[in-house]
Amino acid sequence: MATLSQDTRQHLETILKEWDNAGQAVIPMFHYFMERENYISPEALELIGQVTGMSQSDLLGVGTFYQYFSFHKEGRHIIRVCLATPCVFCGGKGLLSALQKELGIGLDEISSDGLFSLKPAQCVGQCHEAPSLVIGTNIYNNVTPEEIPALLKKYREGDVAPQPAVPMGPPLANEPIVFTGLASNETLTIDRYESGGGYAILREIMATKDRVRVMREIESSGLAGRGGGAFPMAPKLQSVMKNPKPHYVVANADEGEPGTFKDRYIMERDPHSFIEGMILASYTIDADAGYIYLREEYPNSYAILLKALSEARSRGYLGKDILGSGWSYDIRIYRGGGAYICGEDSSLLNSLEGKRGTPRNKPPRLSDIGLWKKPTDVNNVETFAAIPRIMKEGGPWYKAMGDERSCGTKLFCLSGNIRRPGLYEVHLGATLRHLIEDLGGGVPEGRSFRAVLPAGSASSMLYPVQMDMQLDYPTLKAAGAFLGAASLIVMDDSVCMVDLAYWMSGFYHHESCGQCTPCRDGAEDIHEVLQKVVMGEGDLAHLDFVKSLGDYMRTASICGLGTSAPNIPISSIEHFEEEWREHILEHKCRTGICPMTRKKIVDFPARRSPGLAAEITQFQIHEP
Ligand SMILES: Cc1cc2nc3c(=O)[nH]c(=O)nc-3n(C[C@H](O)[C@H](O)[C@H](O)COP(=O)(O)O)c2cc1C
Ligand code: SF4
Ligand code: FES
Questions:
Q1: Less packed terminus of the chain by CB within 10 Å, N or C?
Q2: What is the per-residue pLDDT across 330-356, written as a single tens digit (0 to 9) for each?
Q3: Distance separating alpha carbons of residues 411 and 262, to the nearest angstrom
Q4: Please, which residues have CB within 8 angstroms of residue 44's CB and are 6 or more apart in sequence?
C-alpha cells in the first residue's frame, strides 16, 4: 500500500485540532480526501485511522452511511442528477435518460474514459428551477436533455471553472414581511446588513446584558420551529437553560426535504440575520458553543456562511468577550455527508459527533441530553433568522400576524407544476388557493390541478376541494396532513398518482437509516410492491398490503421518517383508487408514464454509499 506524504498527515492533524475530539474530526477528514482525490483511498483510510486512533471498521461504518463519501475510485467528475420530486415531474427522468445515453453508463457507474461517475441525488435544494443536476460542486438548473452533450463536452475539454459562491435563483417572489433581506439578488454583506439596522439589537443586548429580554420577546412572539415540527421555541430554550452547563446551540441547516430551499435562500442572501438570531438565542441560554450543521449539497451556502461568520467575528459579534459583555461564544460549521435522515435533530447530533446519522430514542429530550450528552437547543435556520426582526419590532408584532392558531409568517417553497414557482413569504393561515393561484399563478395553461404535497415528501396530499383550507399547523393536522417546512409541490393532471407513489417509495427506501425494522423493511417492501404495479405486475392485494404495512410503520417506527414514509402511497391509493385499479386490472396508465411492461423504470441503489466493493447494476429509465 502506497504511503501518503507527511504533508497529508500534518493536514489531518490540523483538522483533528479543529474539532472537539477525534471522532468528530473524521467526517471533515473524509471531506478533505473527497475534495482532493474524489474518493477515500485505502491509504487515506489507513492514515485517518492512525491519526484518529479509530479502527478501519469504525471509519467505514461511518463513511459508508453518507452518500457523498466514496471508498472506491470515482470518475474525475461526479455527476449527481436529482431524482426527487419535483425534479422528476419537471424533466428529471429525461435528464437521467440523456446522461445515461451520452455516458453509456447507469447510476453508480463510471464512464469508460474514467471522466464521469453518475449518481442519483435526492433534492439539491433547487426545486423551483427543476430539473437540476450537479457536476462536482457546480449546479445546473432548468437543464434540458438536449443540453447534456454540450455540457459534458465542456467538462471533457477541461473547460469548466468552479462556479462562484453567489446566491442561486431569483429573489423572494413576493413582498417580504419579516425576511426583508431575501428581496435582494445578492448576499447582504455585513456593511449592508448593519446599515439596515442589523446587529443593533445584539449591541443593545450586550450593552445591557439583558438575557431575559431576548427570552421574553421570543416567548411573546409565539415563534414555533420552522423545520417541520412547529414546536414553540421558548419552552425549548427554557428547558436547556434550567439544565446545568455546558449548553449548546445547533442550527439545523440540513434542509433535505424534497421541494425545500428556503433555508438556502436565507443562508445565501441574508446570512447575518440567521447568525444574529443564533447569537441572540445562544446568549439567552448562556450557551458555550454553537454549530451550524450544513448539508453537503449546499456548497455556495458554505462559502457564504464562512465569510459571514468571519465578518461577524471581525466586528466582535463572535469570539471572546463579545462586545465587552464578558460572554464568549463562537459558531462553527459542520458539513454533513449527504443523508436526508440527518435533518432529524437527534440524528443530526449523532452525525455532528462524527457518528452514523441514526436517530436517538426520545425521551430523553435533546434539551436535557443532546450534543455530547449535554443540554442542547436545535433549531431550524428560518426559526433563528426570524429573531432579530422579532426583537426589533417586539414579540406581539410578530404574534399578531398569522392566525390565532399559528403565529407569524412562514416562507413557502412552491415547486412542481406551477406557473410561478419560487419562494414566498405569507402570514400563517393564508389559504392554499392564495398560495397556488394568487401567488403561484396556478398550474400551467391547459392543465388542471390534481393535488399538492404540502410538506415535501412527508405529508399526505391535499386536493382541489381543500383549496380554501387555511395553511396553519392545527388545520392541516385536523385534515390528516401536516405543513412541515411548507414546501408545496403542486401536481397537475400530467402526473400519474401511481408513479408518484412509486418514486416516493424509492426515496424512502433509499433514505431509511436502517436502524429499525418497520422502516427499513417496510420501506423496501412498499417500494418493491409499487415497482410491481408500475411494471404491470400489480395485484389488488398489494393495495391492502401497502395500507396495512404503512399503518404498522406509522405506529412502530422510531422516528418521523418511518412514520411519514407510507403517507403518500396510502393517500394516493385512497384518493385515486380508480387509477390504481386501472393499472392493476387493465394494465393501463392514463398518463402513459408507467411502463406497464416488465421493464424497470429506474431503481435507487439501496445503499447510499457504494462501499468498498460496489455492486454495480445498469439502471435503465423508461421513456413514455
Ligand atoms: C426525517 C426528518 C427530517 C427532518 N429534516 C429537517 C431538516 O432538514 N431541517 C430542519 O430544520 N428540521 C428537520 N426535521 C425536524 C427536526 O427533527 C427538528 O424538529 C428541528 O430541527 C427543530 O428545529 P425547529 O424547532 O426550529 O423547527 C426533520 C425531522 C424528520 C423526522
Ligand atoms: S424510522 Fe427509519 S429512519 Fe427512523 S430510525 Fe427507524 S429506520 Fe431509521
Ligand atoms: S432540486 Fe430536485 S427536487 Fe429539489
A1: N
A2: 999 999 999 999 999 999 999 999 999
A3: 7
A4: 4, 33, 37
| Residue located via cell numbers 435544494 | 125
Ligand nearest to the CA of 139: 3
Cell of 467: 383549496
Contact 430, 471 (CB under 8 A): yes
Q: Which long-range contacts (CB under 8 A, 24 or more apart) does 458-464 make?
A: 458/228, 458/257, 458/482, 458/484, 458/560, 458/564, 458/567, 459/483, 459/484, 459/564, 459/567, 460/567, 460/568, 460/570, 460/571, 461/568, 461/571, 461/572, 461/575, 462/432, 463/575
Lookup: cell for 565:
414514509
C-alpha distance from residue 117 to each of 70, 99, 113, 550 (Å) = 11, 11, 10, 35
**Domain regions of the chain by residue span:** 6-63, 180-398, 401-492, 497-586
Q: What CATH number does the domain located at 180-398 have?
A: 3.40.50.11540
Centre of ligand 1 from the C-alpha of residue 255, in Å: 8
DSSP state letter for 224: B
Residue nearest atom 23 of ligand 1, based on CA coordinates:
379
Task: Give the pLDDT confidence score for residue 599 in this predicted structure.
Answer: 63
With 90 as the cut, is the pLDDT of residue 611 above it?
no
Ligand 2 centroid distance, CA of 523 (Å): 10
Bridge partner residues of 414 (DSSP) = 422, 488
To the question of pTM greater than 0.85 for the whole model, the response is yes
Task: Say if residue 608's pLDDT is above 90.
Answer: no
pLDDT score of 618? 32
Amino acid at 589: C
Could you tell me the pLDDT band of residue 612, with boundaries at 50, 70 and 90? Answer: very low
The ligand 3 site (C-beta within 6 Å) comprises 82, 84, 86-87, 123-127, 130, 132, 258
- Measured CA to CA, the distance from residue 193 to residue 385 in angstroms comes to 13
What number does CATH give the domain 497-586?
1.20.1440.230
- Single-letter amino acid code for the residue at 294: L
Within 13 Å and on the Cβ side, how many CA atoms surround 58? Answer: 14
Which are the contacts of 91, defined by CB distance < 8 A and separation ≥ 6?
A: 130, 131, 143, 144, 145
Closest Cα to atom 10, ligand 1: which residue? Answer: 227
Question: What's the chain's length in residues?
Answer: 624
Residue to substitute in 122, 226, 252 for testing ligand 1 pocket (most ligand atoms within 8 angstroms of CB): 252
